[in-house]
Specification:
Elements: H1 2-13, H2 15-34, H3 44-50, H4 58-65, H5 81-96, H6 98-105, H7 108-140, H8 151-179, H9 184-210, H10 214-236, E1 238-245, E2 249-250, E3 257-258, E4 262-269, H11 276-285, H12 287-295, H13 304-309, H14 315-336, H15 339-348, E5 351-352, H16 360-393, H17 398-401, H18 406-429
Antiparallel strand pairs: 1-4, 1-5, 2-3
Helix pairs in contact: 2-8, 2-9, 5-6, 5-7, 6-7, 7-8, 8-9, 9-18, 10-18, 11-14, 14-16, 15-16
Length: 454
């Protein structure tokens, strides 16, 4: 406890770090306040009654990422997700379209500024489309919109408020990254996820105490701790490929001496793709329920398969979800990790992997190794993505079960590690002790945070 108090004092004594933390907390507070301000024309009581459909709905997952703002029709109902969608699209275009490849890799700062501008414009377009769909959803809920309000005024004011809310959230995320601590966009998502955790945890505790299941509650918490621990290990897991420099000059000019045999390594992450495969797979899984809504006539009941695909706890949903996550993990890793670039870099640096010939052999070796370490990483992501459904089947409150895995847990772990890594770097620069007794917090170095670089 004394060590913890001393660490807090050290953090508070660093003026720049203190100001960054306070600035970040202020922005997060504003974001949370905006999550409770409804758009014009919404009947909050009727909306609350209409959205009590249970967490099995796909919309329940969307509501979790916005911290409840989605079900409250708040000005931040769409959250930062349109910006995330735009960032993912631009990132994928960077792999496939030469123009975007040039902006990302060759034009430096000017290219990044152009990409940022394109991403913002694309965010506006996506927000307008999603905002229109969201307003249509609100109108379909009985009593959610005041009948006395003109439809044209509702649509105009709603689109303006939702678009302004998303753009303001995007601005806050960028400001947190520049003047605060941590990756701003990731923190906005995280605060939305964490906002629902106390309520769901309290509901689970009350349910267990009400049924005399104190032992089961202890087992749940122990298992939750174990899942978080394994997630941290996999998130930070790295396979190091040793490399050796054939010749390295050391010392001052005029007194350089060749240093042969200097060693280094190439870090290949077990989970190089991060949370992106789950996000892609989740986007695909949103399509069947939407198609079912469009193709099913009024009064007609959807087929059993379509009904199962609308329930995130059903067996067909989770089998398909697991397979999609595994496939997308391999695809996204192949896009991120380029063995040819590694081989060319080593050749330019006059370095080699011991026992492996430079050039094509090095490229094949890195490619084969990446494929092998991606297998356990993809299986882990697949299991962590369906773990909430498995936990829910054991009688855990579905709202609390969501935190046992999936996108929410991976984002929480990645963002917390990344933020703590930045705090620790400030402490070490001022010659204070780090946040842990031994080792160093690695964060997500080596994998781009959500929305980074945009």
């Amino acid at each position: 406890m004394n060590k913890f108090i001393e660490t807090i004092k050290n953090i508070w004594s660093i003026k720049e770090l203190r100001e960054r933390i306070l600035y970040t907390l202020l922005m997060l507070l504003i974001f949370r306040i905006g999550s409770f301000i409804p758009i014009a024309g919404v009947n909050s009581k009727a909306l609350e009654a209409a959205t009590q459909t249970g967490d099995q709905s796909i919309l329940g997952l969307i509501n979790m990422f916005t911290g409840g703002a989605f079900n409250q029709a708040a000005i931040f109902a769409l959250g930062i997700m349109p910006y995330i969608t735009a960032s993912i699209i631009i990132q994928l275009l960077g792999f496939a379209v030469p123009y975007f490849q040039k902006l990302q890799q060759k034009e430096g700062e000017s290219g990044r500024k152009k990409l940022t501008q394109i991403t913002r414009l694309l965010t506006v377009a996506i927000t307008l489309v999603q905002g229109a769909g969201y307003l249509t959803y609100l109108k379909s809920l009985p009593g959610a919109i005041y009948p006395s309000l003109s439809p044209s005024i509702f649509w105009l004011s709603g689109i303006i408020l939702l678009s302004s809310g998303t753009m303001f959230a995007m601005w806050m995320g960028e400001k947190i990254t520049d003047k605060g601590i941590g990756n701003g966009v990731s923190l906005l998502i995280t605060i939305g996820i964490i906002a629902t955790l106390p309520r769901e945890f309290a509901a689970e505790v009350l349910a267990r105490f009400g049924s005399g299941g104190l032992f089961l509650l202890i087992v749940e918490l122990a298992f939750f701790f174990f899942v978080v621990l394994v997630t941290v290990l996999v998130v930070q897991g790295v396979r190091r490929i040793p490399i050796q420099f054939a010749k390295r000059m050391v010392g001052r000019s005029g007194a350089n001496m060749p240093s042969a045999g200097a060693r280094d390594y190439i870090p290949l992450k077990v989970n190089a793709s991060g949370v992106m495969p789950i996000i892609f797979a989740q986007a695909i899984m949103f399509l069947p329920p939407q198609l079912s809504t469009w193709l099913t006539a009024d009064g007609e009941t959807p087929g059993n398969f379509m009904m199962a695909m609308s329930d995130w706890t059903s067996l067909p949903y989770n089998i398909i979800f697991f397979l999609l996550v595994v496939v997308f993990t391999y695809v996204y890793t192949a896009l991120l990790v380029n063995p040819q670039q590694y081989a060319e870099y080593l050749k330019r640096q006059n370095a080699f992997i011991p026992g492996i010939k430079p050039g094509k052999n090095t490229q094949d070796y890195i490619d084969n190794l990446t494929t092998r370490i991606t297998l356990p990483g993809s299986i882990f992501l697949g299991l962590i993505s369906i773990l909430p459904a498995i936990i829910a089947r054991f009688g855990v409150n579905q709202g609390f079960a969501i935190f046992f895995g999936g996108t929410s847990l991976l984002i929480l772990v990645a963002v917390v590690l990344d933020t703590l890594q930045q705090v620790e770097s400030y402490l070490l620069m001022r010659k204070y002790d780090g946040l842990v007794k031994s080792g160093r917090i690695k964060g997500r170095s080596g994998m781009q945070p959500i929305g980074a670089g945009m």
